[in-house]
Amino acid sequence: QVQLVESGGGLVQAGGSLRLSCTASGRSFSTYNMAWFRQASGKGRELVAVITGTGTTTYYADSVKGRFTISRDNAKNVVYLQMNSLKPEDTAVYYCAAADIGGGRWYRTQYDYDYWGQGTAVTVSS
C-alpha cells in the first residue's frame, strides 16, 4: 500500500514552467514504478511520463517529450514532473500513480497502476 499526494499545480502563462511533486507514504518507494497522467476536461486520462523504481529508465509521451522531465528522489519518497515550455493544451488535472513492479505489465496505461493521488490542476493560459 502507498498513499500519494500531489502538489505544485497552478495557473501559468504559455511558455512558462511548473514543477509538480508527488509525495508517497511508506518505506518501499523504490519498489514502485511511478508515473504522471493527466486528464483534460471532457477527455480520458492519458499517460505523460513513467519512471522506474531505480530512476534509471524513463518514458515520455510524444506530446511532452523534450519539454517535461520526470525524476524521483527515493530517499525522500518524492517523484517530480518538471514542465517547461507549457502550452494551453497541457491544461489538465495531473495525477501521480504508482505501480507495483512485476512481470506482465507494460506501465503504459492507467490500468497498469495500483495507487493514485487526488490530482493537482494545471492551467496554462494562452
What report would you give on this structure?
- The chain contains no helices and eleven strands.
- It is 0% helix and 49% strand.
- It is globular.
- Strand 7 and strand 8 form a beta hairpin.
- Strands 2, 4, 5, 6, 9, 10 and 11 form a seven-stranded mixed β-sheet that branches. A four-stranded antiparallel β-sheet has the order 1-3-8-7, with no helix packed on it.
- It is mainly β.
Report the sheet-strand fraction. Answer: over 45%
Estimate the global geometry from the Cα principal axes: globular
Number of helices: 0
Main sheet, how many strands, which sense, barrel? 7 strands, mixed
List the uncertain runs: none
Summarize model confidence as the mean pLDDT: 95
> What structural category arises from helix and sheet content?
mainly beta
- Number-wise, the strands total 11
Q: Could you tell me how far the N terminus lies from the C terminus, measured between alpha carbons in angstroms? A: 40 Å
Q: Radius of gyration from the CA trace? A: 14 Å
Helix content: under 10%
